[in-house]
Write a structure and sequence with these properties.
Blueprint lengths: L1 H7 L6 H15 L2 H19 L4 H20 L2
């Protein structure tokens, strides 16, 4: 997300910025899967500190995040 934001001149230094970036990307792409995958990334970030997801839940979210990264790599 930082690279997309950087290329477009969007701020990207806070969590709030990332949610705004996601909203802008979603508005452009109309992709529900991007929003879902971003949510999985956010959950993994929170889980890093709070450790509430089990191993299977983590694995499923990692798949979503990989998909998210692949989609962002194609986003211009």
């Amino acid at each position: 997300m930082k690279s997309v934001a950087e290329r477009r001149g969007w701020k990207h230094i806070s969590h709030a910025h990332f949610y705004n970036i996601m909203a802008q990307i979603e508005a452009e792409t109309q992709s529900a899967s991007l929003r879902r995958d971003f949510g999985s990334a956010a959950e993994l970030h929170t889980n890093f500190y709070e450790n509430w997801l089990d191993e299977d839940q983590i694995r499923r979210r990692v798949v979503d995040v990989r998909h998210f990264i692949e989609q962002l790599d194609q986003f211009d």
